[in-house]
Design goal:
Elements (H helix, E strand, L loop, with lengths): L7 H38 L11 E5 L2 E5 L6 E2 L4 H6 L5 H12 L2
Antiparallel strand pairs: 1-2, 2-3
């Protein structure tokens, strides 16, 4: 019984295929790791004050729900919340702030 030894071309083909498979596996593991890390960071920082790290609490103010830190007194706005507050006539200073930040984008 004679065994046929694979040709160099066959060996090269299988080596390339194995290399490509390992690269795909590595990329998938890296993607899964990045997703897991993003979720871990979200859980670690979600509703935490960026200034002092204490918990943020949602507070209704002039019809807008804002995030407030009762430790340092910071108030944090989600997208469009500052715009909603700036619409109130009593808050002309907010309109100026909103315009300033919108031009910096």
């Amino acid at each position: 019984m004679s065994m046929n030894k694979p040709s160099e071309a066959e060996e090269e083909y299988f080596a390339r295929e194995e290399s490509a498979r390992r690269e795909r596996e590595t990329l998938e593991i890296a993607r899964q790791t990045a997703v897991a890390e993003q979720e871990r960071l979200k859980q670690l920082h979600y509703m935490k004050c960026p200034k002092c790290g204490f918990d943020l609490h949602q507070t209704l103010f002039r019809g807008v729900t804002i995030d407030k830190c009762y430790h340092c007194g910071g108030m944090w706005f989600d997208e469009k919340e500052l715009d909603l507050l700036a619409g109130h006539r009593e808050f002309n200073v907010f309109q100026t702030i909103v315009r300033l930040f919108k031009h910096s984008r």
